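Hey, I was hoping to borrow your eyes for a little while. I'm sending you its amino acid sequence along with the backbone structure tokens. Take your time with it, there's no hurry, and the full record follows here.
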Amino acid sequence: MYQVARKQFFNPSIFSPYFLFLAVALVGVITYLAHQLLFVGSGIYYLYLLMVIQVTPFLIQFGKQQFNFIGFTLFNHFFCFSVPKYNQVKDLLPRGDIYPESILAIKELINCSVIMMACYYVFRTFVFYSFIEREKYQLLSLSRIQLFVVALYVIGMPVIIDYLPSWALIFHFAAVAADMVLLMCSHSPENERMSRLLRVGVFVSAVLYFMKTGMLTMVGNLAGYLFIASCLRRQYKILIIPVMLTVLGSAIQVVKAPFRNTIFSNPNMSYEERLSVLGGLLYTHYLDDAEVDEEEENAEGHERRDVGESLLHGFSRLGDDSLERVMSWTPSLVPFWDGSSYESIPYLFIPRLLWHDKPSRHIWNKFGRTYGILGEDDISTSVAINYFAEGYMNFGLTGMYVVAVVMGFLIAGVERLSYYFLGGYFYFTFMAFLMPVMTYASDLGSVLQSIMIVSAVLFLFRKQFQKMALKDDYS
């Protein structure tokens, strides 16, 4: 039984048909892209090259069934930047090339992705290297009461949030994320039926949270967690669920703004009324607009899209264009920030409980107003900024490349921390520590803060996790 439990994952050699085919395909694709860039000069091929760079580590790891943090990180960049960017620029291709500002941002993102990936492997090999034999990932074991409490906290999140003070919200969301990951990375012997019912409840809770707040964050997180968990555990049938959630989120994205305006202006609306409003907006966008004749379309300025185009449009709005905006405006219209967005990092780890007057971080609203994304009178809305864009915004290309090096170091270090937390390879720690560094549309301070919060929440319950780990299939 011991030998069976420690059986290695399928790990094909570099001479297996899979890797030979992948190597030949990559050489062919890169050769073709190099030819097109040299002799055609179309900017879209830079985007194709970026896509190849972002998906290659994940494809290699998928074939070996041995995933690491950089593979999932670059794959997330692929979905958060490259795919939405392609959906935005594809309509320009029949008439000409994509905008020069987009080409410049894509070129620099290629450089930053290569630097970050190279630094990750250097740090992982020479700084965080250890002689720990690679073993199969393990599940944590939950008792019946633990399973119920963890699931109940996530399911009750839409209600709990109303009674929490503002300073506790960030820890609350970290705990919710950790619990969602725990439900996907654990088992509860003899309680599988209840486990399935509680997981269904988590999906319902994610939908209710959107109906209450108009925010798709919980639905998006759930889709991401399911995707990673299904890859790690090789349960590929589950992949249909994150795909469906992504399609649903893309469909709703195009009507999210009017839906949020409606529920914010009528906060006492019941869930049935909110669902009716959302259904009406979706019907109007996808069905009524499709029946508008050409004369009405021209007269009223309607933009006709079929369902597929609308879904792609909604998915494109999930992307982050901060790098393109920053590189276009800095320093010609906006002077370099000279590190002002990093001023809060030195005292980021000091709890506000110990420093009541600790300065707050408000770079997101300032960024939106400075770069014309928000109106000058909007002093409350926050706009996300990517850490590469933040590096350029402060110190130009030098700042951007330094941030790429720092992120390579962080990703490698946090990956090693995910092993040392419980002294072994566990699905739960892999996913929990991956989420803070995998994000794309986040500034460096927020990445560091997320790592700190996740570490604090997990270390608070470390002894309990260690007890769960003792019930694995190796014991």
In short: Strands lie at 140-141, 186-187. The two ends are 10 Å apart (CA to CA).
